[in-house]
Amino acid sequence: MPPCNDMDQLLRGKTPPAIGSLVGIHEFSNSGYNKIEWPLTHGGAAATMPAELVHSSGMSLFLRSHALLPTAGLLLAAVISGLTWLPLHAIERNGIAGLWVALAVVAVACVPLAPGLAGFRDLTRRDLVGLFWIAALIGVAWAFYTASLTTTEVARAILLFYIAPVWGTLLEVFVLRQPLTLRRATALGLGSAGLIAILGIGLDLRFVMNLGDVLALMSGMLWSVGLLFVFRRTGPTLATQSAALAVGALIGAVTMVLLLERAPPPSADAIIAAGPWILVAGLGFVLPLWLLSLWAARSVSPARATLIFMAEVCVGVGSAALWAGQPFGARETIGTILVLAAAAVEFGGTQKAASLSPQGVPPL
Question: What order of strands is seen across the sheet that includes strand 46-49?
Fold first, then answer.
């Protein structure tokens, strides 16, 4: 098919066959898209769409809406994640405590994702290696984070996880070769200061850290690194990536219980009593959180994904202060301000949106 055919269809208001295969959207700013590249259905080369076409005939609205979908998905996932502590604490009140809570919830969330394991057979070795790292990093990260919400104060778990912009920015600088600008350096400094404040260093000169704090901090590190294996990966489908995440989360949860949990397994009565809340937490919170975050992370850069996801700080910290009755003192207040300031500096100074992955917005 000649290069003009797809363009002619667009000019006539029709959708070309390749509509689901955007290879790139560039130079996004407040004034709109200046250029996009569109793949040819049969040609093999990418056509460049002029800015006049992008800004006309509703095309700009179409492209913006599709580019904003991953951002909306991340924001929704952030809200869900910020409220996940509610069913987890309800499980505790019904007789299951500690790391057993995370294991029960993760196990339930894994069940619907099991069919995705069948897709592993058709993947290349390179894709399988990528899935291994998704399991070992993102899957384990979510297991750690889920466990941290019941082994330390909710606000501390959330804030320590969201020191992740520090790791995400460092990864983009040293792994993705992005420049370390003054803005990024400022964000790093503010994020590091937030970590110091949350842990108590510099206020009362005491270093206070428990198991939940360690799990939350490690989960943020692992999540930031794991996003590198999701961003722009077009071989594995969302189903296979989600199955890999589930395997990693389940292995992480089982390992934590075996190595770190001293309490005996919950009784049958406790499991029955907490059963409804386990289902709510696993299927209504954790499972949608995994799927939304993975889907969106396929087309949003690691640092941007982490920064957008920081909306959870407001939801989680605010809801915990209102409903959990947990203390929220000077350390947490200063830490929250510094962590949010780091996000504001990094996100507010960004002038260009990350390019979409080679397959555009990943299909749900």
Answer: 24-29, 32-39, 46-49
